[in-house]
Design goal:
Blueprint: H1 3-30, H2 42-75, H3 93-98, H4 106-109
Length: 110
Amino acid sequence: MTTQEKENIKKMIEQKIIRAKKKILDYKELTQPIKPENSLGRVSRMDAINNKSVVEAALRRAEENLAALKSALENLHKEDFGICKKCSCKIPAGRIVLKPESPYCVNCAR
């Protein structure tokens, strides 16, 4: 992988990190406790609690994705970046562009 390719990937990862951080902030705002004094009916309260659970799961996934993106950014300068951790084959550039946080090629990621 050329230096220019790595620089382009670095910029892309940094942009994804910014978007992931914003998404996490949005999810954290949506997962605030549901106050009992809010005038919600019983069914509406159950819907709100269910929605909160869904958003909390999305928050956890977003936090995991952010950690993986940060790890990819740290590993970008290593010689083995772009090499599948499982089969040791070169990961295609298109795969790295779409999913830079994954250390696996498409076949090994399945």
